[in-house]
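Lay summary. Proteins are chains of building blocks that fold into shapes, and those shapes determine what they do. In this project we predict the shape from the chain. Here is one chain we studied, written as its sequence of building blocks.
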Amino acid sequence: LDGVKVERVAAEPLVEDPVAMEIDEDGNWYVAEMPGYPLDLSKKGQIRKLIDTNGDGYPDKSIVFADGLTLPMGVMRWKKGILVADSPNILYFEDTDGDQKADKREVILTGFSLSNPQHNMNTPKFGIDNWIYLGHSGAINSFTYEDIFGDKGKEITFPNKPNAAFLPKNGNGRNVRFKPDSYQVESLSGETQYGHTTDPWGRRFYTDNANHLFHEVIDARYVNANKNLVIADAMEKIPDHGNACEIYPISENPNHQLLTDVGVVTSSCGITWYDGGAFGEKYNKVTFVGEPVHNLVHADIIESLGATFQGKRLVEKKEFLASKDPWFRPVNFYVGPDGALYVVDYYRQLVEHPEWMSDEVNKSGALYNGSTKGRIYRITKKGAGPMDWMKSVRLSEKSSEDLVKLLSHENGWFRKTAQRLLFQRGDKNIASALSDVVLSDTEYGPVAALWLLHDWGILSPKDLEHALKSDLEGVRENALQLADRMMQKPGFKGNLALNESLIKLADDPSARVRFQWICSSSYLSLPKMAELKAKILTKDIDDHWTGIAAIASSQGAEYELLKFSTKAMGATASEGKSEFLGYLAATL
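And here is the predicted shape, written in a compact code that computers can read:
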């Protein structure tokens, strides 16, 4: 795309078969390598650490930090080491003796299926609410290779804590979040294949082969509030240009093993919200997905649309990034400390799985062509300086007070890294500094500050009241999520100022805030709750998700909801009213 610059910053032999990367608080660069795809389960996977030995800011050496992995599909910094997604396990590796190689290996969470690789658990990410999120979808029947990919999973458990929380078999085939220290684990309401992402306020976006852009609209916390409500899905496909949309490759002599889906999205993966702040305002609400079968990167602008969103092409009739090389296989992305977008290129001749290819190709010896290769590209705005974070980033040396300031940084890498470090430190002496961030109404910092205060048990009614009145839609949304967790606790229950703020938000100008209000009302106790819901329904009834949320939040009060909503909505027919009443009748 015009206005951007691409440079190759790592390639074989420094990296081979890369599928994911992580940059930690001190500029250490970890890369997950998966040579075993598609059929080799002999544990050749590894985590490689890239090193700059001459101080020019670019890697010139690499070492194997951890090995013996089956099909590693994600890496995340945690405490003094890293978490690695390698079905059936989430593993923790740490170098305890300073030789730059992990000598500690621990299974943190286990039980995930080992199915066809694109369905395996993947991509651990630290969330705005201090949970670690995993991409995950249901296991599939691998008819041709059931002997090696037949594991459909077990209960998902913490092996070192037998009495801890657990999930049913394979987590019901949905995304999972967990907290290692408190042994908490939960299923989400949505699922994804390889990759997942959030915007700066924690809204979750997924991808799945031909359907490149989903939004998880309603959280499992709210869907599960009414056990009688049955819905087909908690996610919305949001591209305005359609699912399996047309794309614009420039590959020379492409070799498509699957003769269907040529010229449309068919292998989307690695979905990433760009939050680096270095490309200009046009990129502030953009997601990237890799389309490795067609050797390109597709980009969408995400715009609010009622309770959910709409994605529209960043550019028409061409792609953000495309290669003439048919071996270019962009499978993942990372936004770095410099605001650059890093593209992880698996670089293989074939990426289609042999389950769906001809025997002739599978037996040709070409399945692993390129398995000693791999590239990582750095994309910046034209005129940007050279890469220097490997020698300059040292956040571990910063005080907790300085890390608090970074919660409002324009680059999401600094915000998320600072929040993770603060969460791990557990330094409650910075409570007043976090409250100051909440009161500051800066664009990004308040949400992270609120969730840190909440997790440490020191969120005050004053903090919450201010957040509920924030000028920022995303802050008000998160404040409602915190309110539905806090309003039954001492100091919050019966707080007239908080109740007044919550009642006012039922008439919020933002459709997203009104939707969150209805969701949160499952756990709130306010005067005239049914009338308040009916007021929102009257305004938003033709938004499918508003009706769903109203029913989800009304277990035991469905008839009251029916009475007030029919009166408020009036007798004029509409598709939204009909759908809402159908779901409500079925629930009753």
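What the prediction tells us: The first strand starts at residue 4 and ends at 11.
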